[in-house]
Specification:
Blueprint: E1 4-7, E2 10-13, E3 16-17, H1 18-25, E4 29-33, H2 34-47, E5 53-58, H3 65-73, E6 77-80, H4 83-91, E7 99-101, H5 108-117, E8 121-124, H6 127-139, E9 144-151, E10 173-174, H7 178-187, E11 191-197, H8 207-226, E12 233-235, H9 252-260, E13 269-272, H10 276-279, E14 283-293, E15 300-303, H11 312-316, E16 322-324, E17 333-338, E18 347-354, E19 361-364, E20 385-390, E21 393-398, H12 403-406
Parallel strand pairs: 4-20, 5-6, 5-13, 6-7, 7-8, 8-9, 9-10, 9-11, 11-12, 12-13, 15-17
Antiparallel strand pairs: 1-2, 2-3, 4-14, 14-15, 14-19, 16-19, 17-18, 20-21
Helix pairs in contact: 2-9, 5-6, 8-9
Length: 415
C-alpha cells in the first residue's frame, strides 16, 4: 500500500506534506515513495523462500534512473524491451547478468548491444528473431543465452490491451510450435538454450490463469528435458495487479505458491517480471484545479494535468482514486476532472464527488506505473518533474522540462 495518510488534514506521503512538494516543484508533478518500492520488492523476493528465483523489475513501468537504482541496490533483476531500457539499467548501476531482454521487435543493433553487455537471457518471440539472434551472436563470436517466449493460450481475464497470452496476440510463439523451434534453437551454434518464458497479461488479480499457465510451461519443460534439451530457468512473466478501485489482490506469498507449485522439488530458477505492483501504488500525480465549469449536464473541473501527463485513463478508461491534498469541508459535487489538451478524450477521472475550489491541489493515486513512462509532449506541453520521498527527505529525480527542451534537436530551415 502507498504510505499516504492525512496529518492534521494535510495529505502526506511518508513523512512529507504533499502540498509542500507542490509548492516547491510545481504541478503537475509525480511523487514516489522509496519505502513503498522497497517493501513490495522485498515481499516478492521473500515469497519464494528457498526456491531459486529472480525478481526482474519490468523497466517499462517506470524507468527513472533513481527508481532503477533503488531496485538495483536491493539486488533486483530487470526486464527490458529496448536498447534504451538496457542502457538505463546499466546507467543506474544495474547488473547486465541480471537482465532479461523481451519484446517482439528487437533490432540487430539492440541484439549486439545486449550481447556485448553480457545479459542473462534473451526472450525470443519469433522464429525470425531466433535466426537473427544466432547470426548476430556468431558475428560477435558469442553464444546467446535464450529462452522462447511461449504463448500458452491462457485467458488472463484482464483488459484486452494488456492481455498477452492468447494465440491471437502478437507476443510469443504458439505452444504447438514450441518443441520444433526449441529443436532448431538447440542446433544453432550461436545460441545456448537457457529457459522457457511466458507472460499472459498485466494487472492480474486472479491466480487461476497464472497457475494454469505455469502448469503448461512445466509440462513443456518436461517434454524438452526428455529430448535432452536442458532448461535451467523459467520466466513466468509479470507480477500481480494492484487495487486501483476495489480489486482484491492476492498476497505475494499466495502468488509465489501458485506459480511455483508445478516446479516443486526441482532446482529450476523461477523468474518473474513485476512492474506495476512495485511502482504503481508507490506513486501519485499532483495536480492543481485551474477552473471550475459547472454545467446542466456535467460539471467540469479543469486541472493542470492532462492526458499527455497520465495517458492511462484516456487509453484504457483506467481508474485512479483522487484525494484532496487538504481535507476540506463544504458541499461536494460530482465533477469530471479534465485537462487542457485539445482532445475530448483528455480526462483523468470521471464522476468524482469532491468539494472543490479553484486553486485546490489534488493527488491521483496509484500513478507510479505507466504514468511518466507513457507521458508525451503533445500540445507542446513540457513533461512534469519527478520527485522521490525517502522518509522526511525530498529528492528531485527529474527536473521539469523547459520550453527549450521541447525543441532540442530541431532545426529551422535556412533557405
Amino acid at each position: 500500500m502507498t504510505p499516504l495518510h492525512y496529518v492534521g488534514g494535510a495529505l502526506h506521503l511518508e513523512q512529507v506534506a504533499l502540498a509542500a512538494v507542490a509548492a516547491r516543484f510545481g504541478t503537475p508533478c509525480y511523487v514516489y515513495s522509496r519505502a513503498a518500492i522497497e517493501a513490495t520488492y522485498r515481499a516478492y523476493d521473500a515469497a519464494f523462500g528457498s526456491q531459486p528465483h529472480r525478481v526482474c523489475y519490468a523497466v517499462k513501468a517506470s524507468s527513472n534512473l533513481a527508481v532503477l537504482n533503488v531496485l538495483a541496490r536491493l539486488g533486483a533483476g530487470f526486464d527490458v524491451v529496448s536498447g534504451g531500457e538496457l542502457a538505463r539499467v546499466l546507467r543506474a548501476r544495474g547488473e547486465a547478468l541480471r537482465v532479461v531482454f523481451s519484446g517482439v521487435g528487437k533490432s540487430a543493433e539492440e541484439l549486439r548491444q545486449a550481447l556485448a553487455a553480457g545479459i542473462a537471457c534473451f526472450n525470443v518471440e519469433s522464429a525470425a528473431e531466433l535466426e537473427r539472434l544466432n547470426q548476430v551472436a556468431i558475428q560477435l563470436g558469442l553464444r546467446a543465452p535464450m529462452a522462447l517466449r511461449v504463448n500458452p493460450d491462457v485467458d488472463a481475464g484482464t483488459h484486452p490491451y494488456i492481455s498477452t497470452g492468447l494465440k491471437e496476440n502478437k507476443f510469443g510463439i504458439a505452444a504447438q510450435d514450441a518443441l520444433a523451434l526449441y529443436r532448431r534453437a538447440a542446433s544453432l551454434p550461436g545460441l545456448r538454450v537457457h529457459g522457457i518464458a511466458c507472460h499472459i497479461g498485466s494487472q492480474m488479480t486472479d491466480l487461476a490463469p497464472l497457475r494454469e499457465a505455469a502448469g503448461r510451461i512445466a509440462a513443456l519443460r518436461q517434454a524438452l528435458l526428455a529430448e535432452g534439451i536442458a532448461i535451467d530457468h523459467v520466466d513466468l512473466g509479470g507480477g500481480l495487479g494492484i487495487a486501483y478501485r476495489d480489486e482484491v489482490v492476492p498476497s505475494a506469498a499466495d502468488y509465489a505458491a501458485a506459480i511455483s507449485g508445478p516446479f516443486a522439488g526441482s532446482a529450476v530458477e523461477i523468474s518473474i517480471e513485476p512492474g506495476r505492483s512495485i511502482v504503481g501504488p508507490a506513486g501519485v500525480l499532483l495536480t492543481r484545479v485551474e477552473y471550475l465549469k459547472p454545467g446542466d449536464g456535467r460539471n467540469f473541473a479543469i486541472i493542470d494535468a492532462a492526458m499527455n501527463d497520465l495517458l492511462r485513463p484516456a487509453l484504457y478508461d483506467a481508474h485512479h482514486a483522487v484525494l484532496p491534498l487538504r481535507e476540506a469541508g463544504g458541499e461536494a459535487r460530482v465533477w469530471e476532472l479534465v485537462g487542457p489538451v485539445c482532445e475530448s478524450g483528455d480526462f483523468l477521472a470521471h464522476a468524482r464527488s469532491l468539494a472543490l475550489a479553484e486553486g485546490d491541489l489534488l493527488a491521483l493515486r496509484d500513478a507510479g506505473a505507466y504514468g511518466f513512462a507513457m507521458s508525451s509532449n503533445y500540445n507542446s506541453r513540457p513533461r512534469p518533474a519527478e520527485v522521490m520521498i525517502d522518509g522526511s527527505i525530498v529528492r528531485l529525480i527529474r527536473a521539469r522540462e523547459t520550453l527549450d527542451d521541447l525543441w532540442r534537436g530541431e532545426q529551422i530551415l535556412t533557405d
